[in-house]
Specification:
The chain is mainly alpha-helical. The chain has 5 helices and 5 strands, in the order H-E-E-H-E-H-E-E-H-H.
Length: 153
C-alpha cells in the first residue's frame, strides 16, 4: 500500500484509506491512512467502505480478506494472489500486480458508480453460487449419513 498511496494522491481524486487487523501493529502511524486495529464488528468496518483493497502479495490457500469483501458485496481491488483459487463466472474484483494499474483500478472505482455496482452484483452472484454449491454438498453428505445409519441397523 505504501507504493499505491502516493499514486492515488498524485491523481487528485479524494480518498480515505482505513486499515484494519494485525497490519496496524506492524506499520507506523501516517497521515495518509487511519489505523483501526482489530475490529470487534467486521460489519461495522465494512459498512461505509465504497471499496475494499486487498494488497496481499504472498500467502497460501484461500484469502479470507477477499471472501469477507465479497460476502459484504463490496467492490474489490486485489493482487492476483488475493483472488487465487476463486473462479467467478463474472468478475467481482479488479486485479493487477502492477502498482500503477492497481492504483488506477482504485481510482476507477472511486469515480465510477456503475462499475462499483457491477462488481457488487457480481460479488452477490458469486456468493449465491457458492452457497448453492455448499448446500448441495451438505445435502449429499446428509444422504450418505442416512445411508450409513440405515446400513448399520
Amino acid at each position: 500500500m505504501f507504493k499505491i498511496i502516493p499514486l492515488l494522491k498524485k491523481s487528485g481524486v479524494p480518498f480515505k484509506v482505513k486499515l484494519a487487523g494485525s497490519i496496524c501493529k506492524h506499520i507506523p502511524d501516517g497521515e495518509d491512512y487511519e489505523k483501526l486495529g482489530y475490529v470487534d464488528d467486521v460489519d461495522e468496518a465494512y459498512k461505509d467502505a465504497r471499496l475494499v483493497i486487498n494488497p496481499v502479495l504472498v500467502g497460501t490457500g484461500l484469502n479470507i480478506k477477499t471472501i469477507e469483501a465479497v460476502s459484504k458485496a463490496k467492490p474489490l481491488v486485489s493482487h492476483e494472489v488475493g483472488v487465487r483459487g476463486l473462479k467467478p463466472k463474472k468478475p467481482f474484483a479488479l486485479v493487477s500486480d502492477d502498482d500503477q494499474e492497481f492504483a488506477n483500478h482504485i481510482i476507477e472505482l472511486l469515480q465510477n458508480d456503475e462499475k462499483c455496482m457491477e462488481l457488487s452484483k457480481n460479488a452477490v452472484s458469486f456468493m449465491n453460487e457458492y452457497i448453492e454449491k455448499n448446500n448441495a454438498a451438505l445435502e449429499e453428505i446428509s444422504k450418505d449419513l442416512i445411508h450409513i445409519e440405515y446400513n448399520e441397523r
